[in-house]
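Help wanted!
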Amino acid sequence: MTKSAAVRHAELGTASVAEFLQFLFSGITVGAIYALVGVGFAIIYSASNVINFAQGEFVMLGGMATMFLLSGGEPLWLAALLAIVITAAIGLALNKFAVEPAAHRRGGGASVVTLIIITIGASIFIRGAAEVLLGKDSHRLPAFSGDQPIDIFGAKLDPQVLWVLGALALAVVGLRWFFARTRLGKAMLATSCNRLAAELVGIDVRMILLASFGLSAALGALAGILTAPITLTRYDIGIMLGLKGFCAAILGGLGSPFGAVAGGLLLGIAEAMAAGYLSSAYKDVVAFVIILAVLFLAPGGLFGAKATERV
Amino acid sequence: MLRLASARTGGLVALAAIVAALPLFFPNNFYYDVAIKTALNAIVCIGLNLLIGYAGQISLGHAGFFALGGYASAILTARYGWPGLLAMLAGAVGVGLLAFAIARPVLRLRGHYLAMATLGLGIIVAIIINREIAITGGPDGMTVPRLWVGGWRVSGAVAWYWVAAGALLLAVWLSLNLIDSTLGRALRALHGSEIAAQTAGIDTTRYKVLVFVISAVFASLAGSLFAHAEGYVTPIEAGFLRSIEFVTMVVLGGMASTFGAVAGAAILTALPQLLTVFQDYKHLVLGAILIGVMIFMPNGLVPSVALSLRRLRPPVPAS
Amino acid sequence: MSLLRVEGLSKLFGGVHAVAELSVAIEPGRIHSVIGPNGAGKTTLLNLVTGIYQPSQGRILMADEDVTALSTAARARRGVARTFQNLQIFFNMSAVENVMVGRHLHLSDRLVPTLLRLPSVMRANRAAQEKAVELMRFVGLAAYLDAEADAMPYGALKRLEIARAMASEPRLLLLDEPAAGLNPKETGEIDELIQKIARAGTTVVLVEHDMKLVMGVSDHILVLDYGRRLAEGTAAEIRANPDVIRAYLGTQAA
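Answered by r_m:
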């Protein structure tokens, strides 16, 4: 009796460990996407104080463009590369034709509300274009290295997740290098600290803004391509991903790319745990409840600086 | 001031005339239906414009209040047999209390944080409506009984047209009254300069809360009427895109202009419905309009047109 | 009884004292000036008095009532009004409406009568407008009665702020560099205006860099340097004070 109870207890223990790990894996996977989207928000915000609500559309574009090129007969690596380039180009165009004309209008820039509406307009536009050009169907990209799951303590890990995490790690390391070592990265950092001062020392702020859109779009596309084998892609996945990425960025303090990564992973894991242990129906609520709690308790975001108004 | 007063009366009369004359041009019930939707959207926009256009506070979650009003009417009448008007009132009071409860922490936020918070609240409402299938019918929505006003059963597109039109005129009148008053000037002042408003003795928090509650109640009442008029309500009415649609209408028509809010609602409700060519390209066109208006007419249609009209007229000599 | 008294007032910004252990009393019915080099803490003092900043230390009393914990609006209710160095005009309104906002404390703003546009609201509107027009004439803006605020020149906006501040019928009017950016003729007119306001019974605190203006109108001058009180007295006393000369002209002059 005692023995079988012990065995049952042990089995239960391993089962719950496996279960926990399973939730954790799925949380980290989703979190990695949020992180990559959130980084995009943070990069653009720190360069320009613009919140780009079209950030989620870059993720959709990455996956959908890869799918389209793949069906045209391109090899996967080339399709993915081209998709990133195309998405980055769309990001540049978005800045050039929608954000910049408003932000640099004569006689003072546009208000926060105006810019929010422009980027929302852009997101609706991009989504509408994808809907018309690429159709309304869901697509799944083939996994990069097979779909034989890896068994870790009884939990199944999709090998694609390793690609996602690898890419996230690479993006973090790459961004650190970019901001610390490259001329453009340092200029971007300087612009985010003090735009006027950056302009005075000869930094082309418009160029920085343009580059930030290109970089964010490329990162978003990367996330979209890597996760399309796991989560499917569709013309309208960008809405929710964009909003969650925005949550991640705010959680991380809005201006900090690395804060956004932490915020994204945190949200993903919280969401997966809530879905697993509490209620899967309310999975999507988690991110917003967390963000509201944070905003109510610390109105400047978790790491946001408190600005004093000068009068 | 005199100019403002005459613009106000003139505008109201003109709007009433348009509303009265429109049915002469309606070939069938479909047009009535579009007009009803326009009027009800416009009511939401008039309230939202008080918040965004006049007080300068953004909300990306007002569809939540609209849907709560609609579902309050739907659930209370269909499941509990309440009279329609009472259900509508209860919905408005409930939404008002909810808005009051969340207004303080929400409106302490500014800019992007305020956008995020209101957006989050709207989405939470949408998800709850989607998931509580036993009460709301879930993603499929639920049917709503007809509205009875006294002994009159409001049914048919024509009857609803007059109800919606009457409600719209009332909303416009209330909004105009509010703006041209101490209260309205306090709202505009906190938009213009919060610090200067406080220095003039205006308790800015109180006014932000007040206008947030008023705009939520406008949305709730419009939602209730919408549910009864359509006879049906779905969670789409609570969605993020619906919230964006409302904001777009306000911005397109012209911020800080009551008639602008009506014009914006009319254009964005009627255009996609009337031009069936749009159906496939609806989102494409909507997005392009948003970007274009913001870049070329950042003040919106009505204020931009009014400004160019004013420039045509000779200047008024100083009194 | 002093109209305004600050006791041991300090304000730190990132470890730097913008105002340091300052104790000052403002007596009613006079023109007081606060002067000092740039960064001496003059505007910070106004921001502390109006409650836009919270002090790091010390108390602020109005007519012997401790208002340190009160909001900006609550202090306005106790009779403080001000203008701003960096203009804080309501550019989304007409000039007259800007001044009408200044009447806020004297008007009822009850929701239901407002929504229904009851006669009482109309009457209040009209009275507020008449008062605003009268004040605009008083500060010399008769030419702008029909103007939108965003169509007015800088000098006129400076007066508009004064009219708006006066609309609340304050006991204490704080003017933050009313002559900054104005030409000598306009400065002369501001000079007259300040004296007119003081004669009408409002106590004025003037923060200003234009020494000719300050020395001409002030009954009493407070000199700040690095957030501390350097000197206090009449114009003649201040002019002769060696500390003040040193602070303004450097050590060589002393």
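OP: Thanks! One thing I noticed: The first strand of chain A starts at residue 150 and ends at 152.
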